[in-house]
Amino acid sequence: MNTENQQHNPVLLVHGIEDTGAVFNRMADYLRQKSRSVYTLDLVPNNGDVGLDELAKQIVNYVTANFLPEQPLNLVGFSMGGIVSRYYIQRLGGIKRVQRLITISSPHQGTVVAYGSLRPGCVQMRPNSLFLKDLNADVAMLKQLNFTSIWTPYDLMILPAKSSQMPVGREVIVPVALHPWMLTDIRVLATVTEALAEPIKLPSL
Fold first, then answer.
1. Is this structure's pTM higher than 0.70?
2. For FRET with 40, which of 19, 20, 30, 134 sits at 20 to 30 Å CA-CA?
3. What is the per-residue pLDDT across 27-41, written as a single tens digit (0 to 9) for each?
Protein backbone atom coordinates (compact mmCIF):
# COMPACT_ATOMS: atom_id res chain seq x y z
CA MET A 1 0.00 0.00 0.00
CA ASN A 2 1.21 3.50 -0.78
CA THR A 3 1.06 5.29 2.55
CA GLU A 4 1.47 8.70 0.98
CA ASN A 5 -1.43 7.98 -1.38
CA GLN A 6 -3.59 7.01 1.58
CA GLN A 7 -2.98 10.43 3.08
CA HIS A 8 -4.22 12.28 -0.01
CA ASN A 9 -7.80 13.47 0.09
CA PRO A 10 -9.97 12.53 -2.89
CA VAL A 11 -10.22 15.40 -5.38
CA LEU A 12 -13.66 16.30 -6.73
CA LEU A 13 -13.69 18.36 -9.94
CA VAL A 14 -16.72 20.62 -10.54
CA HIS A 15 -17.21 21.95 -14.08
CA GLY A 16 -18.60 25.21 -15.43
CA ILE A 17 -21.62 26.27 -17.46
CA GLU A 18 -22.33 24.37 -20.70
CA ASP A 19 -19.63 21.85 -19.68
CA THR A 20 -19.59 18.29 -18.33
CA GLY A 21 -17.05 16.50 -16.19
CA ALA A 22 -15.25 15.53 -19.42
CA VAL A 23 -13.81 19.05 -19.62
CA PHE A 24 -11.42 17.93 -16.87
CA ASN A 25 -10.08 14.87 -18.74
CA ARG A 26 -6.54 16.19 -19.10
CA MET A 27 -6.39 17.55 -15.55
CA ALA A 28 -7.82 14.31 -14.15
CA ASP A 29 -5.22 12.23 -16.00
CA TYR A 30 -2.45 14.56 -14.84
CA LEU A 31 -3.53 14.34 -11.20
CA ARG A 32 -3.92 10.56 -11.34
CA GLN A 33 -0.35 10.34 -12.58
CA LYS A 34 0.53 12.18 -9.37
CA SER A 35 -1.22 9.41 -7.38
CA ARG A 36 -4.35 11.45 -6.73
CA SER A 37 -7.79 9.91 -6.45
CA VAL A 38 -9.93 12.02 -8.79
CA TYR A 39 -13.70 12.24 -9.23
CA THR A 40 -15.88 14.32 -11.54
CA LEU A 41 -19.63 14.86 -11.59
CA ASP A 42 -21.96 16.16 -14.27
CA LEU A 43 -24.16 19.02 -13.08
CA VAL A 44 -27.64 18.85 -14.64
CA PRO A 45 -28.85 21.03 -16.22
CA ASN A 46 -25.55 22.65 -17.12
CA ASN A 47 -26.93 25.69 -18.99
CA GLY A 48 -28.02 28.00 -16.17
CA ASP A 49 -31.66 26.91 -16.24
CA VAL A 50 -31.55 26.37 -12.47
CA GLY A 51 -29.83 28.36 -9.75
CA LEU A 52 -26.33 27.57 -8.57
CA ASP A 53 -27.76 26.80 -5.14
CA GLU A 54 -29.75 23.96 -6.73
CA LEU A 55 -26.66 22.66 -8.52
CA ALA A 56 -24.76 22.71 -5.22
CA LYS A 57 -27.25 20.19 -3.84
CA GLN A 58 -25.97 17.79 -6.51
CA ILE A 59 -22.53 18.04 -4.89
CA VAL A 60 -24.12 17.09 -1.58
CA ASN A 61 -25.77 14.06 -3.17
CA TYR A 62 -22.61 13.03 -5.02
CA VAL A 63 -20.44 13.31 -1.90
CA THR A 64 -22.97 11.35 0.16
CA ALA A 65 -23.13 8.58 -2.45
CA ASN A 66 -19.39 8.27 -3.12
CA PHE A 67 -17.51 9.01 0.10
CA LEU A 68 -17.62 7.89 3.70
CA PRO A 69 -19.08 10.50 6.08
CA GLU A 70 -15.72 11.10 7.77
CA GLN A 71 -13.74 11.37 4.52
CA PRO A 72 -12.20 14.85 4.05
CA LEU A 73 -12.21 16.19 0.50
CA ASN A 74 -10.48 18.61 -1.85
CA LEU A 75 -12.59 20.53 -4.40
CA VAL A 76 -11.49 22.07 -7.68
CA GLY A 77 -14.12 24.27 -9.35
CA PHE A 78 -13.82 25.74 -12.84
CA SER A 79 -15.65 28.95 -13.72
CA MET A 80 -19.29 28.54 -12.55
CA GLY A 81 -18.19 25.35 -10.78
CA GLY A 82 -16.11 27.40 -8.36
CA ILE A 83 -19.19 29.34 -7.27
CA VAL A 84 -21.27 26.16 -7.01
CA SER A 85 -18.49 24.69 -4.86
CA ARG A 86 -18.47 27.76 -2.64
CA TYR A 87 -22.21 27.47 -2.09
CA TYR A 88 -21.77 23.83 -1.11
CA ILE A 89 -19.01 24.79 1.33
CA GLN A 90 -20.55 27.96 2.74
CA ARG A 91 -24.24 27.05 2.81
CA LEU A 92 -24.68 23.28 2.64
CA GLY A 93 -22.22 22.03 5.24
CA GLY A 94 -19.26 21.38 2.98
CA ILE A 95 -17.07 23.50 5.29
CA LYS A 96 -17.05 20.52 7.68
CA ARG A 97 -15.22 18.25 5.26
CA VAL A 98 -13.58 20.24 2.46
CA GLN A 99 -9.96 20.94 3.38
CA ARG A 100 -8.76 22.53 0.13
CA LEU A 101 -10.74 24.57 -2.39
CA ILE A 102 -9.19 25.63 -5.69
CA THR A 103 -11.17 27.80 -8.07
CA ILE A 104 -10.05 28.36 -11.64
CA SER A 105 -11.33 31.46 -13.49
CA SER A 106 -14.41 31.71 -11.28
CA PRO A 107 -16.55 34.88 -11.25
CA HIS A 108 -16.43 35.48 -7.50
CA GLN A 109 -17.45 39.09 -8.05
CA GLY A 110 -19.62 38.30 -11.09
CA THR A 111 -19.12 38.63 -14.85
CA VAL A 112 -20.81 41.07 -17.23
CA VAL A 113 -21.11 38.20 -19.72
CA ALA A 114 -23.93 36.89 -17.49
CA TYR A 115 -26.10 39.84 -18.58
CA GLY A 116 -26.48 38.01 -21.89
CA SER A 117 -28.95 35.51 -20.39
CA LEU A 118 -32.04 35.63 -18.18
CA ARG A 119 -31.55 32.06 -16.97
CA PRO A 120 -31.53 31.89 -13.15
CA GLY A 121 -27.98 30.54 -12.89
CA CYS A 122 -26.67 33.29 -15.16
CA VAL A 123 -28.53 36.04 -13.29
CA GLN A 124 -26.82 34.83 -10.11
CA MET A 125 -23.41 35.32 -11.72
CA ARG A 126 -23.97 38.96 -12.61
CA PRO A 127 -21.87 41.57 -10.78
CA ASN A 128 -23.53 42.64 -7.52
CA SER A 129 -26.20 39.93 -7.75
CA LEU A 130 -27.98 39.17 -4.48
CA PHE A 131 -26.64 35.62 -4.70
CA LEU A 132 -22.99 36.70 -4.87
CA LYS A 133 -23.47 39.44 -2.29
CA ASP A 134 -24.81 36.83 0.11
CA LEU A 135 -21.91 34.44 -0.48
CA ASN A 136 -19.32 37.20 -0.27
CA ALA A 137 -20.81 38.59 2.94
CA ASP A 138 -19.22 35.77 4.92
CA VAL A 139 -16.32 34.89 2.66
CA ALA A 140 -14.20 34.83 5.84
CA MET A 141 -15.50 31.27 6.32
CA LEU A 142 -13.04 30.20 3.65
CA LYS A 143 -10.17 31.08 5.99
CA GLN A 144 -10.97 27.79 7.72
CA LEU A 145 -9.62 25.84 4.74
CA ASN A 146 -6.86 26.13 2.16
CA PHE A 147 -8.27 28.32 -0.60
CA THR A 148 -6.54 29.15 -3.90
CA SER A 149 -7.93 31.23 -6.76
CA ILE A 150 -6.21 30.75 -10.13
CA TRP A 151 -7.07 33.13 -12.96
CA THR A 152 -5.84 34.75 -16.16
CA PRO A 153 -5.96 38.47 -16.99
CA TYR A 154 -6.88 37.58 -20.60
CA ASP A 155 -10.20 35.91 -19.77
CA LEU A 156 -13.07 36.95 -22.05
CA MET A 157 -15.70 34.93 -20.16
CA ILE A 158 -14.95 36.40 -16.75
CA LEU A 159 -15.24 40.16 -17.23
CA PRO A 160 -13.58 41.89 -15.62
CA ALA A 161 -10.99 39.11 -15.18
CA LYS A 162 -10.11 40.45 -11.73
CA SER A 163 -13.53 39.21 -10.63
CA SER A 164 -11.66 36.03 -9.73
CA GLN A 165 -9.79 37.92 -7.01
CA MET A 166 -10.79 37.21 -3.43
CA PRO A 167 -9.98 38.93 -0.12
CA VAL A 168 -9.00 35.60 1.43
CA GLY A 169 -6.75 32.72 0.46
CA ARG A 170 -3.99 32.60 -2.12
CA GLU A 171 -4.09 34.08 -5.61
CA VAL A 172 -2.16 32.71 -8.58
CA ILE A 173 -2.26 34.55 -11.91
CA VAL A 174 -1.40 32.43 -14.95
CA PRO A 175 -1.36 34.36 -18.27
CA VAL A 176 -3.38 31.89 -20.34
CA ALA A 177 -4.92 33.25 -23.56
CA LEU A 178 -8.39 31.68 -23.40
CA HIS A 179 -10.87 30.71 -20.66
CA PRO A 180 -11.14 26.97 -21.57
CA TRP A 181 -7.38 26.60 -21.90
CA MET A 182 -7.12 27.10 -18.13
CA LEU A 183 -7.93 23.41 -17.72
CA THR A 184 -5.18 22.15 -20.03
CA ASP A 185 -2.31 24.62 -19.60
CA ILE A 186 0.61 22.85 -17.90
CA ARG A 187 1.26 25.87 -15.66
CA VAL A 188 -2.28 25.67 -14.28
CA LEU A 189 -2.04 21.90 -13.83
CA ALA A 190 1.20 22.36 -11.89
CA THR A 191 -0.37 25.09 -9.75
CA VAL A 192 -3.37 22.88 -8.94
CA THR A 193 -1.04 20.02 -7.98
CA GLU A 194 0.97 22.34 -5.75
CA ALA A 195 -2.16 23.70 -4.05
CA LEU A 196 -3.42 20.17 -3.41
CA ALA A 197 -0.14 19.37 -1.66
CA GLU A 198 -0.22 22.33 0.73
CA PRO A 199 -0.38 21.32 4.41
CA ILE A 200 -3.91 21.75 5.70
CA LYS A 201 -4.73 24.47 8.17
CA LEU A 202 -5.22 23.23 11.68
CA PRO A 203 -8.17 24.59 13.69
CA SER A 204 -7.25 27.40 16.08
CA LEU A 205 -7.32 26.44 19.73
1. yes
2. 134
3. 999 999 999 999 999
